[in-house]
Queue: 3 jobs
Job 1
Amino acid sequence: MSLNASLGLQLGSLDLDAHIAVADGEVVAVLGPNGAGKTTLLRCLAGLVAVDRGRIELDGDVLDDASSGAFVAAEARHVGVVFQDYLLFAHLSALENVAFGLRARGVGKAEARGRASDWLDRVGLTAHARYRPQALSGGQAQRVALARALVTQPRMLLLDEPLAALDVGTRGDVRRDLRKHLDSFGGATLVVTHDPVDAYALADRVIVLEAGHISQQGTLAEVTAQPRSRYVAELVGVNLIAGTLRAGVLQTDDGAAVVTAGDTPDGAALAVIRPQSISLYRNAPEGSPRNAWQCTVADLDQRSERVRVLLGGPLRLVAEITPAALAAIDVRPGDEVWATVKASEISTSAR
């Protein structure tokens, strides 16, 4: 492995305790809610914060070891960092910004400028070499920041929300460019993001960090197929219900019952319901479906040809229906509805 890190740090109310391993050439996305510790994790790896416990190794070299007191300063680590707001120096040109890291490492002015010029050419910004950051677009500034991180030939690349500052129209193009550059980088890469689309487009594997701990990891397909927390379920657009399973019926702490058709053994379990599998009725449905819950419409969110209906009650659910189906039941926030789903449409797994 290129990176092998056990990170333990108490910072205010955050208790970071995570083990991360990333292979050479692998891109790992770190997902998690606000306050989960994602940026703190990157700051530990970059050498901006020392760990209280644990050890960080990069290609076998110890960068931080709480037990021995070993610590390599940020400027001495072979690590490139792209911050969320890029942190370009406003008084320097694009060329000088890219050359800055080399100059800080003692590289001569002429060589640093030559290597910086090569990287600006790689990211397609040769014509903008003399521009200062305020004259660059968001996408151009992101590419300058990436060039500055890569020009020093790092063994690890850390990107903190690298696309968050971009508008929707620019984001897709810059995302494709970024993926191209990451494909050519031979070291370990970690990308912090809130966007599952960015994770899907950029990363080989994802790590979900919640309250300082890794709650799930794997490929995005593996994580979305078996979400292990409400955050992941909401992130990937499915309903996640936790409870205790007995004879095919999942009982939640709030008293709701979910009838399933799987063969998950009794005990603590999770049920996953796709929003598209939920049907809504204004009145109690006929035929006594196995799963029927009376809910309150909390909100409506129309997206293209589908409407997401947020439901409150014993089960907090998100249903996805067509505009025609919404018009047929004629509901608004605050109205009562019945939600039904077939047992065969519910997947379960042990917790």
Note: DSSP finds nine helices and 21 strands in the chain.
Job 2
Amino acid sequence: MRATEFIGELKIDNRRGAGAVPFNQEIDYMGLRVGMTPRMFLKLALPLDIKPDDQDTIDSLKQIKDTQGFGAPFLYIEIPEQWFDGDFSKLARVSNHDGRHRMLSILDSEGNDPVEVHLLLRGGLRRRDLTDQMIEQMQAGMISQTGTPVKGPIFTIF
């Protein structure tokens, strides 16, 4: 898949877009590229108490989304050790995030249509370590960064 993709009208540039980081460029090795709505992303990440500076950032991002584009927002995911033994009684957990301002600007200007989001794996795991069943479990539900269970579907696979 190309580093620059258009999803709907939104330009995603995982090399030069606002918020792009090296992990974005290697997502097919480092984790998963998924489609997720801005509201779901914001539900999984820590809440953002929007202050005037935050609103300025969100407004600025709206101005560059069609020119510079955005690096895909991402969530860091912790996979329960039990999953590797076939025990899916625990949910995967979001442990960190990047992209709330981008997602708020997307939600405000583009609506709640799914956009490219990257799921980066913690604990030295890579995409090759995940089974189809693990991915289905993540789609079905996760624990948000605040510790709240969130039922899916969380995302779609590209």
Note: The longest strand covers residues 92-98.
Job 3
Amino acid sequence: MKLNFFDKLFGSGFYTGYISLAPGTFGSFLALLIYWIPGFEKAVVLIPAIILFTFYGIYLGNKFEKIYGKDPSQCTIDEFVGTWISLILVPKTILISGITFIVWRLFDIIKPFPVKHAEKLEGGAGIMLDDIVAGIYSMIIIHFILLIFKL
């Protein structure tokens, strides 16, 4: 099996998956930069992007696993989805984006229940679902932080 140009480009998070050191962090950071494109933060743009990348990510995750093995580091499209989920309906400021990025990376790395369990699913579903759950956790925590600190 071989990846075509678009599958490799999107599946690897615009080639962040091929960075040898911390590809998930680089993928997440690039997703954050994309979020900062004017208008991308709007729910009518962000949520369809999340849905599209989720389904495409499941498809690509299956392909990446056949080539690189279980939950390969080369596949970082899942980091984009998790990052974007964590940013849903948050104010677009540098401070809040930075806090959200850190909270998201912590949940993605620590993998509290059921994130770790979701990761054990086979293929693209497992690749995507753990980051979706971690993104949801991050989004909830960020919204609590916003409420508590009135940011």
Note: Residues 21-149 form one domain.
